[in-house]
Amino acid sequence: MRRKLPPLPHLTHRSSSTSASLAPPPPRRLPPPVPLRDLLAHRFPPPPDQPPFSRPSQPQPHPHADILLRGRRPGCDASPECLHLEIVKRGLTHDLFLANHLVNSYGKGARLDSARRVFDEMPERNAVSWTCLISGHVLSGLTDDAFPMFRAMLREGPGCRPTSFTFGSVLRACQDAGTDLLAFAVQVHGLISKTVFTSNTTVCNALISMYGSCSDGPPILAQRVFDTTLDRDLITWNALMSVYAKKGDAISTFTLFRDMQHDVSGIELRPTEHTFGSLITATYLSPCSLGLLDQLFVRVLKSGCSSDLYVGSALVSAFARHGMLDEAKDIFINLKERNAVTLNGLIVGLVKQQCGEEAAEIFLGIKDSVVVNLDTYVVLLSAIAEFSTAEEGLRKGREVHGHVLRAGLIYMKIAVSNGLVNMYAKCGAIDKACRIFELMEARDRISWNTIISALDQNGYCEAAMMYYCLMRQGCISPSNFAAISGLSSCAGLRLLAAGQQLHCDVVKWGLYLDTSVSNALVKMYGECGAMSECWDIFNSMAAHDVVSWNSIMGVIASSQAPITESMQVFSNMMRSGLVPNKVTFVNLLTALAPLSVLELGKQIHAVMLKHGATEDNAVDNALISCYAKSGDVNSCEQLFSKMSGRRDAVSWNSMISGYIYNGHLQEAMDCVWLMMHSDQMMDHCTFSIVLNACASVAALERGMEMHAFGLRSHLESDVVVESSLVDMYSKCGRIDYASKVFHSISQKNEFSWNSMISGYARHGLGRKALETFEEMQESGVSPDHITFVSVLSACSHAGLVERGLDYFEMMKDNGLLPWIEHYSCVIDLLGRAGKLDKIQECMKGMPMKPNTIIWRTVLVACQQSKDRAKIDLGREASRMLLELEHQNPVNYVLASNFHAATGRWEDTAKARAAMKGAAVKKEPGCSWVTLGDGVHTFIAGDRSHPNTKEIYENLKFLIQKIKGAGYVPLTEYVLYDLEEENKEELLSYHSEKLAVAFVLTRSSSRRPIRIMKNLRVCGDCHTAFRYISQIVGRQIILRDSIRFHHFENGKCSCGDYW
To answer: Within 10 Å of residue 18's Cβ, how many Cβ atoms?
Structure first.
């Protein structure tokens, strides 16, 4: 393959102007020539004046060397067994030279039991004996057995002192063991420094390679050994270049390459295939541009090394990892010789480009022409793990699993089992991944990293933490990968104490120097609510990357901190020179969305356009949500329309939620219909969103339509959808339907139980709610804070004061600290029972200051109380409400109503005047009903309806009839200083009375009348509805802002306790 590529910049000749100003490189020097006579001196007779004994002595051959030479003859068996047999036949088992050769032969053939047997039977041993045995174990990968042998050798005495070959083998064992044995490797280095081998080039080369593999971070120790090596050969340079290349430091690698060619030692060092292999590796392990690889490729072609199998394999892997798959395949095909390494490099490159299916196809097509090795199956499993469809990947992965089992490969290398664990985990079969891990006979750090990471990424955080603890109990030091996964699990479980223990491990093993580990610490402390520690970690980091800034912005957004903090962090990130990515903008929009600040959202949108971060689904979805929360539905629709062809489920859900949030239920339902006809499958989130919207406006018919569609879509078995159905039916007044759905749920979770308990409480069925709560506890599901809010609310509506207080105390037994919502329920419970004294005691015992919810509840309780001695408490509550939220019109209305109910008309007038001065407007009372022709809305005294005449005539007739049945208008609910007749007239035209009169003019059936109201129903309307239900013989279901009232046969489900 021929490519016209630009040359390497630092290999081209400098221009004349440049070379004039810079000193030329030192000329290459050859070693001084040796006279021919000196080279052949041993062949000439000594001079006459020189005695014969001064002639250099020739090494005498071993007397039994013919035994070793027999194996090299054609047709002779060269196996160690044959050699062993010949030695035994001749009675030479005591010969040290032959025994050492035999141990070495058995060791190289991986027959370590035989090698050890010969070694143990030797009458005497020397350093060569120990070196051969140690080297055999290292070559077979049994490093754990090699180290005890080395220690035993050191105890043998002066005759068995380690040689350079011994140290080379031991250092290679340390290199294979990795970072776990760095401390032992340093001890070996210390021992070497006390011997004559401290300046031995071979030993120094082994030290450089060992430190490169055993040290995390920059190869400082390897560089130090290189700098102190006096006689550097080509292997020395290649060793350090390989270390830097594997660390991804391309600059240092190529700098060494340049220095090697200008070495002043006088020896000309030409790059070999190993040199080019390291340089090529550096190009794809570092974030360098593709141009560097192109230039290096030209240099390889000029050197004639392109046909080398090692260099060709490296080129295939490099081009594939850079995404140049066609070039990688061309090099692969044009190689005269291919092996497993070449194939593995191509597959790894394809996996890096998310081409798992193509990698598997190449393996199937070429496996018969290339002898694959164990590493091939490891990289094949990694390719299968990246399949676009998990089902297909799982099927292929099972086939590979079956093959390695039948061939016995799974027991030959730990990496094969590690690959199986990773493959099953990424294909969603986490149970099979755990099973493979448990059956492994031996595990390394990668095994533990893989299973811990797999469990964490699949949401099994508790299991991930358990395996992390088992790893530490096995005295295995954590790696940065295990620490990151463990911290992620702690964050998911909100286990601050466990996260702090992992932090100690991180500090103990020096992992905090890794930026990724520090990022995980930031996220863990942030997710656990420890923002102070979170900021301490972030500020103590030596360097921040984009993930660091995204992590701190993410936890700020989750903590609902002021938007100014997020904007300040974003500004600091921009000043640091880093370019924000899509995660940055998603976090920023998430922090902004709850504030509904439209202008700031537009500014962030402009910055996104500037950095080219649009045209991404995650970013556009976040933008839609942000604009929706800001009330800009038009911008939402524009973004949504531009996403045509790339919308996902989140896009549809964001648009539907935007419509619902802004009160456009019809548009939301139209969007749902469009979604159903656009080949986009509705998921449980879509159904939950729409069902919650139907529940918010009590659109029962629409909710039932969605229920029917969910049944056709086979989503009825999803616990999220079922819980949303329970909530929808209960909020739409069909508590009977909600109960049926609830009892049909096979596996109830806390959301299911909470929906049913709150539904019963909302409908005034307090005892039924408490029975359900007892069933929840018996089923083994632990109640949460929301559960106790519903239970306390049920006790409040049912008047069960003592049981409510008992349940409040029960929270502590369940390890739950009461929220302010729970104290509000207790105050409401006491207020409805008229126990104002205990309200004050409860407020004094609160660990937090009362907020507007508490004071609002106190004010309503004082208004309903018959004890006028507690006017001071009500006045204090009124004052605190207006002080804490002076812009909320509800607070002015409640204060005005309280003063009016207690006959303090001057204070009432002041409250109403203060409301006008604050430029706030009271929300008018509104009631609506849903009939076949749509939704009909009414406000008090409303005369805008087309059927106004019929409505008022029917209402007048109804009031006359119920008065005849005993109804007496409760004029104390008219909070104005008027005459009684005027008060009665005002009461007659309340919105809920207009709504019921309208329904009676349109329908004469016996179906229940369903009326919704945005405010709390007044006492007079409540009494009137009891009489109306008895007069017309129909059930009336009224939902106000607090609860449901079921009127039937002159009675209400609340028992007039509401």
So the answer is: 9
